[in-house]
């Protein structure tokens, strides 16, 4: 006989209960399984709703795969059923449409979070690094969707100033924000990330195009305060104009 002890959601420590975590630290900072648990509301006999959410993520592998799954496929899973499947599919589809709507518009980039939000969903399904440039007008409004300028592990041989600033010059950008993803999920910068950023900041000064920030997009993980990191806010690179 197994010695495992089953705890219902109410029997979990208060700080681990989905609704308490949501209220205490906010929707943007709770793990994916907590958001799913709030949507699903109830678990099954022998599995609380948090366990059910974790199993759902394990079964499909990612939120992206969940979005792509049909409601009928979700409904076949133990503890989900057709009603929960419809509700879950509806919530995920709304999130997908919102992400698409935001990427198609010309939003203002007022903070690192604004920049990271644009790339969070596209970066989630990638298993390799990509480097993007966001081109802004004088009001910090995005002139075009983020432009990919390289693919592969970030290093000086892949990211050249000419590839970074050519589209900025072409679109008459007043400033740019650099961004790339870390497939590992950890947004901590490498020494190469910092070195390349400093080089591009200096190149921008020569071209009179301000580099406002370099945002590294990862994934929200236990123990991490955020799914992204701003090199400007970290203080590891100086972005101030000469």
Overview of the molecule:
With 242 residues, this protein is α+β, with helices and mostly antiparallel strands. The protein has two domains: 9-103, DNA polymerase, domain 1; 108-234, Cytidine Deaminase, domain 2. The chain is built from ten helices and five strands, in the order H-H-H-H-H-H-H-E-E-H-E-H-E-E-H. The chain has helices at 18-25, 32-40, 49-60, 63-68, 71-75, 81-104, 112-124, 161-170, 191-207, 231-234, and strands at residues 130-136, 147-151, 175-181, 210-217, 228-230. A five-stranded mixed beta sheet has the order 2-1-3-4-5, sandwiched between helices. Helix 9 links the parallel strand 3 and strand 4. Helix 2 crosses helix 3 (49-60). The N and C termini lie far apart (70 Å). The relative contact order is 0.09. Mean pLDDT is 82; it is low at 1-5.
How do the strands and helices of this protein lay out in sequence?
Layout: H1 18-25, H2 32-40, H3 49-60, H4 63-68, H5 71-75, H6 81-104, H7 112-124, E1 130-136, E2 147-151, H8 161-170, E3 175-181, H9 191-207, E4 210-217, E5 228-230, H10 231-234
Parallel strand pairs: 3-4
Antiparallel strand pairs: 1-2, 1-3, 4-5
Helix pairs in contact: 1-2, 2-3
């Amino acid at each position: 006989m197994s010695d495992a002890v089953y705890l219902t959601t109410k029997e979990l420590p208060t700080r681990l209960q989905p609704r308490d975590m949501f209220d205490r630290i906010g929707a943007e900072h709770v793990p994916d399984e907590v958001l799913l648990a709030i949507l699903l509301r109830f678990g099954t006999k022998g599995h609380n709703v948090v366990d059910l959410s974790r199993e759902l993520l394990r079964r499909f592998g990612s939120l992206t795969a969940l979005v792509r799954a049909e409601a009928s496929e979700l409904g076949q899973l133990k503890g989900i059923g057709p009603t929960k499947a419809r509700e879950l599919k509806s919530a995920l589809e709304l999130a997908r449409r919102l992400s698409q709507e935001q990427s198609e518009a010309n939003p203002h980039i007022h903070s690192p979070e604004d920049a990271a939000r644009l790339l969070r969903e596209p970066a989630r399904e990638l298993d390799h690094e990509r480097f993007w440039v966001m081109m802004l007008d004088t009001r910090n409004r995005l002139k075009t969707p983020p432009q990919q300028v390289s693919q592969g592990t970030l290093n000086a041989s892949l990211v050249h100033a000419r590839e970074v600033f050519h589209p900025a010059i072409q679109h008459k950008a007043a400033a740019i924000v650099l961004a790339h993803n870390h497939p590992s999920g950890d947004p901590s910068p490498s020494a190469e990330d910092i070195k390349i950023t400093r080089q591009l900041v200096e190149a921008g000064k020569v071209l009179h195009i301000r580099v406002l920030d370099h945002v590294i997009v990862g994934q929200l993980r236990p123990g991490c305060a955020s799914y992204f990191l701003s090199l400007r806010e970290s203080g590891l690179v100086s972005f101030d104009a000469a």
